[in-house]
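Give me structure tokens for this 194-residue protein.
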Amino acid sequence: MKRLRQIVTKAVVAKGKKRVESSEVLRPSFTPTSILGCWVINHHYNAKKVGKYVEVSGKFDVNVWYAYNNHSKTAVHTETVQYKDRIKLHYRDEEVIDSNDCHVRVLQQPNCIEAVITPNGDCFNVVIEREFLVEVIGETKVVVSVHTTEVEEEWTFEEESSSSSSSSSSSSSSSSSSSSSSGYKISDESSSFH
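Here you go.
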């Protein structure tokens, strides 16, 4: 007869994904003539669960290589940008024992997709994209069927042979010792008859 049991185990109980495009205004030391390149490095972040959301807070460095003084000189402007993204969670099951244990995976590291000089001519307008996937690990219930009879899968294995060299040598030594001891008793008995 089948019976059901509930097992409480840890599993992914909620997920969320978000892609963000943010526009950052950076002010360089010199009035730029043109932008020669832009890249984003040193991305650091952490995450915490807040209600039905996960807040990802982080920072990264934006480097803009630009020409100034009528294209006669170049410089690199570096600025640290901080952000906070709220990612909505979607739960698959309603009845879960919730947890604050969340894992974050960066699907797209912060990356510059556009960098232009602002219309007033003294700043950069940099558009940066990033994308995160968050998972919340919590306790959930799993129902399993319990059988009263013992059921085990078929095992496939080869039987070992007992005619190995080490076992035969040990058996021969034991037989020789037993024969010598029995021979001693026989000779002892024969001496008692004389």
